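Morning F.,

Quick status update on the modeling queue. The single chain you submitted on Monday has been processed. Sequence for confirmation:
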Amino acid sequence: MMEKSLHHNDLGASELQMESIYRGRSLRKLLLLILLLVLLIITAGAAITKGSAPVPLQELWAMITGASADEMNVYIVREVRLPRILMSVVTGISLAAAGTIMQALLRNPLADPFTLGVSSGAAFGAALAIVAGTSVFGMNLVDSGPWLIAFNAFLFGCLAVGVVYGIARMKNSSTTVLLLAGVAIGQLFSAGVSALKYFSNNDALKDLIIWLMGGFWGSGWHVLEILLPLSALALLVLMKYAWDLNALISGEEVALTLGVKVKHIRWVCLVTVTLLASTTIAFTGIIGFIGLVAPHISRMMIGTDYRYLLPCSCLIGALLLLVSDTVARLLLTPIEIPVGIVTSFFGAPFFIYLLVKKRREYWT
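Structure tokens below.
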């Protein structure tokens, strides 16, 4: 009897110790997320003051507190820099969240929002709008401005992924078929973009190339009114499945034994990240590597628990894109570099690092 009592006491002490360790790790992860959020706010504040027309810190503080401030500085902050900064933050969050979820669902560490042809489809839609001057419904885009260009990009981004999904469903929703179909459809739309480049005139070709480089020239409160609620809703949906994603990364068989509806979760999450990524791309153009880099940095920092990994990836993605956009604005001021160029400069070496240094972990 005494041996049993001692055994139960040992088990109880062990459970309490494990619970204490778990709570300690969870607290550290929460503190890391809070630290990243504070860092993002500080970076955004610094970005507001920097530019071809610098805004003094005392002027910014006056705007925050409601004191009198220079009208020109107020206009620059409220109508130019603040919408752009929020746009870069929302875009970074969206692309990072999409990359994180796609890497989990496809169980491929090199997957990102563009793996299933989203970027190629959106690029073709925008190219059709810029070069041909009409949408698929025959609307004139020259008179209607960037809204219908964004609509075309969104429509064809969703169309590309819809075709990929259809092909995959014919083959029992295999992740391998999803990836291969995404590559094939992406190449098809890329060929369409190349054809439109070939037949376009000089002005249209310049507009198309600038759009393909990615940037936040079209930032404004009217765009944020669409992207902010959409991004918030999508993130809530994805966070709802965080526990299920933790089970899914262990394998479909393990997830099924735990009662996870694998097919349902896969399709809901894929549709959500497709809408999230294609809507963002429609207004910003092609901005690469954020969806690839942010999830990997986050895993190094916080682990693979998606309850913490997803928000961490979002914050890292927002920070990376905000810093990249600030560098793009300041490096050759008053000339502005497309932010897609800056993200490619740090994203491409990181991609090579993943291929070379992590090949044993990823490919065996």
